[in-house]
């Protein structure tokens, strides 16, 4: 404390000068209308800048919560869009409603539920790649459910704990997804056998079909794991091989697997009924 008083005593002249400067500025702005207005305008500008910076900092630390809210809203909108597309499809199909087609109609009319989830682990460079999500059985997730993003198919839930789920990625040597060409409705299967996380191969499209570069590949809706019409990717090359009766088609995937952060776990409420029916009939689904 003694040293503090000694320091103040040494700079007493400077402190008196500063005090008079502040007092003179106060009197100037207090008595002069122009200076008063200029002072408040300047102070409002700097105060506004400080508040703007404070708001940006606050928003930055709230990004996670905002992302979760947006993901939940997007999941709801996607469910509503899928429901509308399914209803439109049902209205456009005219069939004889006998006992055989009744089951198919019930599957086509099934409603899908989308649950947003955050990707907390992801691999893309292995032969068999997996993801880990931050939701599990407590959120209603079960093994066998599909996983999507707004850009396309990601994979299928493999195992579930109370709070987490592991997903077999589309980038897996054993993943085979039933798809079709959106333009001409030709059915085939997509398989990741390129070793490149950006591309996969479309199999079983016969040479009798016309396939063009740029054609969109979408899910077929078989087995109802994924709603039909979900994007897989676009055709980037089409090759004919002499010893094969099918094209060799390379597809650029719609999902950027190296940048996955949020996904949707999709539940088909009619899937259990369909699976039971297929087991009883001895039918194995292609999306296994």
Give the key terms.
six-stranded antiparallel β-barrel, 288 residues, 12 strands, 38% helix, six-stranded antiparallel beta barrel, alpha+beta
What's this, in brief?
The chain is 38% helix and 28% strand. By secondary structure, it is α+β, with helices and mostly antiparallel strands.
What does this protein structure show overall?
The chain is α+β, with helices and mostly antiparallel strands. The protein contains six helices and twelve strands. It has helices spanning 2-10, 12-31, 33-61, 63-92, 99-108, 271-281; strands at 112-122, 128-133, 146-149, 152-160, 165-172, 176-181, 187-191, 199-203, 216-219, 231-239, 248-253, 262-268. The strands form two sheets. A six-stranded antiparallel β-barrel has the order 1-2-5-4-3-12. A six-stranded antiparallel β-barrel has the order 6-7-8-11-10-9. The longest helix is centred in the N-terminal third of the chain and has 30 residues, at 63-92. The protein is elongated, with a radius of gyration of 31 Å. It starts with a helix and ends in a 7-residue tail after the last helix.
